[in-house]
Structures are given as C-alpha cells and as structure tokens.
Specification:
This protein is mainly beta and 86 residues long. It has one domain. It is built from no helices and seven strands. Strands 1, 3, 5 and 6 form a four-stranded parallel β-sheet that branches. Strands 2-4-7 form a three-stranded parallel β-sheet, with no helix packed on it.
Length: 86
C-alpha cells in the first residue's frame, strides 16, 4: 500500500489509531506500506496499544523515509504512545 501526500485528523481505534497490522510468525506473505510525503497526522489515538501505528507482523515492511508530522498522537491505556512494534 502507498500513502501519498495526505492529511489525517481525528482518527481513533482500539489498537493502532491509524494503522494496524498483525500476522503470524509462520505467515509467508510479505506486506508493505510506503509513506510518500508530506503526511500529516493530528489527533490520532488508540484505546489499548499503538496510539498511531500498531505493527505486530514479522513480514511487514514499513517505509517512512519522508516528512511526517505527528501531533496529539497517544494511547489511552496500554503500550506504545505513537508506535507499537513487536
């Protein structure tokens, strides 16, 4: 997936306010997300983990080599105020 030149505001979820990915260690499928900026995130939150981004997928490739602005990105109760990486 490619996310290009975007502005995201007021997004909330149980895990990974903006982006959630979970996979098994034995899963053979490689997934990728590429951010091409500028990208702006504001008021992104999660209830239990990974305020903005929750990645628990051993075959996930994430490319954030661009300008990204984060403001008010948090988790209400749990781990990973901005990122939860496992």
């Amino acid at each position: 997936m490619t996310i290009r030149n975007s502005n995201f505001t007021s997004i909330s979820a149980n895990r990974g306010g903006f982006s959630f990915s979970s996979g098994l260690a034995t899963q053979a499928t490689t997934s990728s997300i590429q951010y091409i900026g500028p990208i702006f995130f504001s008021a992104i939150s999660a209830k239990t983990a990974g305020g903005g981004f929750y990645y628990d997928h051993p075959m996930m490739s994430v490319n954030m080599k661009t300008f990204i602005s984060l403001s008010d990105c948090h988790v209400s109760n749990g781990n990973g105020g901005v990122f939860y990486l496992s």
